[in-house]
Amino acid sequence: MGFKNKIGVISDSFGLGVKEGLKKAKEIGADGVQIWAIAGEMEPDNLTAEDRKELRNYISGLGLEVSALCADYGGHGFKNPEENGWKIEKSKQVLDLAFDLGTNIVTTHIGIIPESSDDPEYAIMQQACNELAAYASSRGGYFAIETGPEPAERLKKFLDSLDSKGAAVNFDPANMVMVTGDDPVQGVYTLRDYIVHTHVKDGVRLREVDPRDVYGVLDHEQIAVMAEGGAGFREVPLGEGNVDFEAYFTALQDIGYAGYLTVEREVGERPENDIRAAVKFIQSYRHR
């Protein structure tokens, strides 16, 4: 197969804090990291200009890059007009932080896109995403919506309805396999014009799942519990689930995707071992 995409890991998955997580990412052979930036050490309000410069230098000193930041504020995503104001402003602050750290991508969940564009929530989500997209586009950046809560075709139609390309896609094949039953390989081709960042994660669907039970009220700790406990689906180590990675990687090459392949591991008692094995798994494909 052979491809040149860099390999990332979500450094928070190690549970070690920011700098120790970065060191661990380098130790296991990653080229870059995706970092959550909504609370604690990485919350934008907690990082001065000098802090940001120091962190960027620390990351580059390790020989790493930032593939993306994550600004996911949970709840109903961007369906509630009463919450959208502060969520949009916080998200913009994370994009500013992203640029300070050397990336132009922020990933997020926006809530489940309604099936019908006539649904009142559709217009609410459009308004919020148009504001985010305009801000990102003005800076040459992207807010990348993660796949999973709805089929790829519905997400594409929503993105097509927006006013700029500042809203893009963070493609996660396992979410599609586990929750909607959508085909991630076809999804790559469907969303080809929007993919700016990807996750490499595996999973199985044990029975039909209502996406509203998983993504209706976004709570990533609860989703992780569900993915570990087999609540209709299960996240598993790479190669043990239903994602056809040879076809997935081939599809990404077919559409000319040149960005990061970022390992996400939200469950498991040995995340470091699983992430280390995942990096080697991707490397085995990259060198074929």
UniProtKB/TrEMBL annotation:
**Boundaries of each Xylose isomerase-like TIM barrel domain copy?**
22-284
Instruction: Tell me where on the tree of life, at the top rank, the source sits.
Output: Bacteria
Keywords in UniProt for this one? Isomerase
One Gene Ontology term of the molecular function aspect: isomerase activity
What is this protein identified as?
Sugar phosphate isomerase/epimerase
Q: Give the source species.
A: Paenibacillus zeirhizosphaerae
Its taxonomic placement starts with:
Bacteria, Bacillati, Bacillota, Bacilli, Bacillales
